[in-house]
Design brief:
The complex is a heterodimer of chains A (654) and B (254).
Chain A: H1 3-31, H2 41-53, H3 62-90, H4 104-130, H5 140-166, H6 175-186, H7 191-212, H8 220-229, H9 259-267, H10 273-277, H11 279-282, H12 289-300, H13 315-319, H14 326-330, H15 337-350, H16 356-368, E1 391-392, E2 400-403, H17 406-410, H18 415-427, E3 432-434, H19 444-448, H20 452-467, E4 473-476, H21 479-486, E5 498-500, H22 501-510, E6 523-526, H23 540-548, E7 552-553, H24 584-593, E8 599-602, H25 605-618, E9 625-628, H26 629-632
Parallel strand pairs in A: 1-3, 2-3, 2-4, 4-5, 6-7, 6-8, 8-9
Chain B: E1 2-11, E2 33-35, H1 37-53, E3 56-62, H2 66-76, E4 80-84, H3 94-107, E5 112-116, H4 127-135, E6 139-149, E7 152-158, E8 164-170, E9 173-177, H5 189-195, E10 201-203, H6 235-248
Parallel strand pairs in B: 1-3, 1-5, 3-4, 4-10, 5-9, 6-9
Antiparallel strand pairs in B: 1-2, 6-7, 7-8
Helix pairs in contact in B: 2-5, 3-4
Classes of the chains: A mainly alpha (654), B alpha/beta (254).
The complex binds iron/sulfur cluster (2 copies).
Residues 268-274, 289-290, 293, 330-331, 333, 335 of chain A line the site of one iron/sulfur cluster.
């Protein structure tokens, strides 16, 4: 029998089998609720080009990035071999020869076969010799199988070409295959059978791979590009609203996730980059963003899967997340972990499944608008010790409306910093006021804890209070408030110009409105708060301030978008430390200790609390002072209320 | 079965308490009010009973902020919400409110009245005996678990030394709840928002059913006796002062 019908039969059978093996995924995608991800096609395409064409995120890990790029490019070049192999037999007479199949294309194929093997070698070296921890929990057999198949595909194509050269074909464009031909001659291998066997091994390996793909992480070969194309283009700080067609706030079954959330599950490459940067995972809590995705994915095709929330994904897993967004920032295929975590938390909250500590915090927030259980009337208490009155923005117009936030207002460990910020504003002549007892918690973490209803209540109350004031811009102390006011409040039509206090201070410094007495250039390091940096791009203002204050900045290895969370976000500050082996804040302090700096500069009230506690717990408070960036700035002519002398050699306030 | 549960609003002790000018009451003008904790447990126990054996729960609230707490009660599972008008805005006296509760228990045909075993304004837990007496129903205080056995109510009461006594009482009855069988549940903001649409009924206050037998002649704020030392509110100073006091008294080596 001729080879053509045989090849037709096996090829069609393989395609049918592949579709059959994909059927559950196709059905899941087709039945999933809608998501609007079809806008801005050019911006979407551009993102795909950068992510795939330039391997932007992939190259953040140089070895992985390079080996993946080698395999990826070689795959496209060698695909011409596949086209020729199938084309020539399926449609007798088909050949790439007229466009250079025997000349330049042949040369490229030969070279990229070697590059493919090089990439493969590096991959094997990485996985079996270097063994990065991020692979723990990923499927080992998926990786091993693709290594073997690539090896088969590449070696069979070289042997086939070599055998053809032995049989008299022109080898001048095929330097590598010519070497193989020499080898074949040396062993006097019969040419025609060898060529045919190599051909069928090639075909067999490719079809086997095709059939294998649907059940493996190699799906990403087809799905990575669409998943990146349909990525979220909304501001990253805006948590997705509850879709109006959903009856209750949360998600209780996989079928309630929209098609993009489902596509995410199918696109995961199990590369573990998310796991490697996750503070919850690092602290020993039962959350790996990678396993979260793969567990959800596996449940998609498992009829016997346990209930979604509390079964497939344990409650402790959901509560472990600090919503730091490091996983999403690291993911090369733009998988969105947080919307899934928040949606499942929404279900837990709606059912009242919350820990006693979280219940207390949420009940306090419901009753009093702050998590500490303090009366609203005490919110502006910190202003009493200022040497000057603070304007009530509710009763007189101001230029800047200062949204102070819970920790900066109530926590005695932070109030000094709040007062220092007020003094700096005053000294620079900023016309500012606050909301006094009309301010409520911004709801940023309330929302991320999954308490959507309470978030709405808090947000509405703040928006009403803010709208009743006359002002030009809003400034916040807390990066968490910054994020809620700037991004989340858009759901309620609250579009305000919101700045972080570091941005306003940097602006004042640049305008020469603060008369700073620079310090002597002591070395300090700086921690990027997740909700200022990764969420809102506020990387430079705090750094500019540190320099303007006369200090030398020595960044930590994990800085800017790779900053490591303090562990307090997303409501973690309202949860216990059960199961934590190493607190993220202590992990971070250890990182800073290695730099030989005297100060650890922060720009978030919660960071001041978290890191002061961490240096105390590690017994290094004498070595490394935790200082807010505002405390670094000392003015030549201090304003009326004294007490904030320059921070020298780490000693604060004398 | 119909359960009437009593919810009393008390001054939030986290706020700053100030006395009225005559020194016989707390100045309520600037105070925040919150639900009496034991009443919160009574509500939870009522809902748990409803879930276990089926019942209709009528929540009755007294004091400032009643509406908010009644919405919360509905969100947690109460079927009906009634705000009881209070005489004046002073302390919620059990002697004075007992007859209003009793009138409601009769008009709603309740089989069981639950309230917290005590409140900061009724430290001796007199609401239960007052209401029980006026209704002529049996009453028990200090329950830590309620259950229905046939047509009778089983009431578990924690005694000292870890001993628990269980009573069986015929309904109708009045029970003072110390703790619910399970901690009060969290009710989400979305359920609260939903419940905020519920209509809240009103009930007039009835004349007190008992003669006044004693008067408050003076109230005193804590820390006015001169034997304590106020450590201030700067945490660092507080910690330092505390450490030195402990060291001076020989409790800790510094
Ligand atoms: S948001 Fe942060 S804590 Fe949560 S899963 Fe991602 S990396 Fe981990
Ligand atoms: S979710 Fe993204 S980063 Fe994490 S393993 Fe999957 S592909 Fe990699």
């Amino acid at each position: 029998m001729s080879e053509t019908p045989i090849l037709w039969i096996v090829t069609l059978a393989a395609i049918a089998l592949t579709l059959w093996r994909s059927r559950r995924y196709i059905v899941a995608l087709a039945q999933a609720p809608g998501a609007s991800r079809f806008d801005q096609p050019w911006r979407r395409l551009e993102g795909v080009a950068v992510a795939i064409g330039l391997h932007r995120k992939m190259l953040r890990k140089p070895l992985s990035g390079i080996l993946h790029a080698l395999i990826f490019i070689s795959f496209f070049v060698l695909f011409t071999v596949t086209i020729e192999a199938f084309g020539s037999r399926l449609f007798p007479g088909f050949s790439l020869a007229p466009i250079g199949g025997d000349s330049w294309i042949a040369l490229l194929q030969d070279l990229f076969a070697v590059l493919m093997l090089l990439g493969l070698g590096l991959a094997v070296y990485q996985r079996y010799v270097l063994k990065p921890a991020r692979f723990s929990g990923s499927s080992g057999s998926d990786a091993a199988i693709i290594y073997v198949l690539i090896l088969l595909i590449v070696s069979s194509l070289l042997i086939e070409a070599g055998a053809r050269i032995v049989g008299g074909a022109d080898g001048s464009w095929r330097p590598v295959a010519s070497l193989v031909a020499d080898l074949l001659r040396a062993f006097s291998v019969p040419t025609h059978p060898t060529e045919r066997i190599a051909y069928w091994i090639h075909i067999g390996a490719i079809l086997a791979f095709l059939v294998y793909i649907p059940g493996s992480k190699h799906r990403h070969m087809f799905l990575a590009a669409p998943n990146i194309y349909f990525r979220n283009l909304e501001p990253v700080g805006m948590a997705p609203a509850v879709p109006s067609e959903r009856g209750s706030p949360g998600v209780t079954s996989l079928a309630q996730f929209d098609w993009k959330q489902t596509l995410d599950l199918l696109s995961c490459t199990e590369c573990g980059r998310c796991q490697a940067v996750c503070p919850a995972y690092a602290s020993g809590l039962p959350l790996s963003p990678k396993m979260l995705i793969t567990d959800l994915r596996d449940a998609l095709t498992n009829d016997a899967a346990a209930p979604l929330v509390g079964g497939v994904i344990a409650e402790e897993t959901l509560w472990a997340c600090t919503t730091c967004r490091a996983c999403m920032e690291a993911c090369p295929v733009e998988i969105e972990h947080l919307p899934k975590i928040i949606d499942m938390r929404r279900h837990l909250v709606d059912e009242g499944h919350v820990s006693p500590m979280l219940q207390d915090a949420l009940s306090n927030l419901t009753r009093l608008g702050n998590s500490m259980g303090k009366p609203s009337k005490m919110r502006a208490r910190w202003t009493k010790e200022l040497g000057f009155p603070v304007k009530d923005a509710r009763s007189e117009p101001v230029d800047v409306l200062w949204f102070v936030g819970d920790y900066a207002s109530y926590d005695p460990r932070v109030q000094d910093v709040t007062r220092k910020v007020a003094e700096l504003f005053t000294s620079a002549g900023v016309d500012f006021g606050i909301l006094f007892d009309a301010e409520r918690n911004s709801g940023n973490d309330v929302r991320r804890v999954g308490e959507e209803g309470l978030f709405e209540t808090l947000a509405q109350s703040n928006i009403d209070a803010i709208r009743a004031c006359s002002f030009n811009r809003i400034v916040t102390t807390d990066p968490h408030s910054l994020n809620a006011l700037k991004n989340d409040y858009r759901h309620f039509g609250g579009e305000f110009e919101v700045l972080h206090y570091t941005a306003l201070l940097a602006e004042l410094v640049a305008a020469g409105r603060l008369d700073i007495a620079p310090a002597g250039g002591a070395l300090v390091t700086y921690h990027d708060p997740c909700y200022l940096g990764r969420y809102n791009g506020g990387f430079d203002a705090p750094r500019d301030l540190i320099r303007a204050a006369g200090y030398t900045l020595h960044d930590m290895p994990r800085c800017r978008e790779n900053s490591f969370c303090c562990g307090a976000g997303g409501g973690r500050i309202w949860q216990g430390d059960d199961g934590v082996k190493e607190r993220p804040s202590e992990n971070r302090i250890r990182e800073a200790l290695g730099l030989g700096v005297g100060m650890f500069v922060v720009a978030c009230p919660k960071d001041k609390v978290m890191y002061t506690a961490a240096t105390d717990a590690l017994g290094v408070a004498g070595q490394l002072k935790v200082v807010d960036v505002a405390e670094l700035i000392s003015l030549r002519e201090a304003p009326a209320a004294e007490g904030y002398d320059r921070v020298d050699g780490g000693a604060i306030n004398g | 079965m119909k359960i009437l549960v009593v919810l009393r609003m008390i001054p939030d002790s986290a706020g700053e308490l100030e006395l009225t000018s005559d020194g016989r009451g707390i100045d309520r003008e600037w105070l925040d009010f919150q639900l009496n904790d034991f009443d919160d447990h009574a509500l939870e126990e009522a809902i748990l009973l409803k879930e276990a054996v089926g019942a209709t729960v009528v929540a009755v609230a007294i004091g400032e902020g009643s509406n908010r707490v009644l919405q919360m009660a509905v969100a947690r599972g109460a079927d009906e919400a009634v705000a009881l008008e209070a005489e004046g805005d002073g302390i919620i006296e059990s002697r004075a409110i007992a007859s209003s509760i009793v009138a409601l228990a009769r008009s709603k045909a309740a089989d069981l009245v639950l309230c917290g075993v005590q409140s900061t304004e009724d430290l001796f837990g007199q609401l239960v005996p007052y209401a029980g007496t006026l209704l002529g129903w049996p009453h028990v205080s200090g329950s830590s678990r309620l259950g229905i056995e046939g047509s009778a109510l089983r009431v578990t009461q924690e005694r000292g030394g870890g001993i628990a006594a269980t009573y069986e009482i015929a309904l109708p009855a009045v029970i003072g709840v110390q703790t619910a069988s399970k901690a009060p549940r969290y009710v989400s903001g979305s359920k609260l928002r939903e419940a905020s649409k519920t209509a809240i009924g009103k009930a007039p206050s009835e004349p007190a059913g008992f003669e006044r037998s004693a008067e408050i002649v003076a109230l005193r704020l804590p820390g006015q006796r001169g034997t304590g030392e106020n450590l201030g509110d700067n945490p660092e100073n507080v910690a330092e002062r505390l450490a030195s006091i402990l060291a001076a008294k020989g409790f800790a080596g510094v």
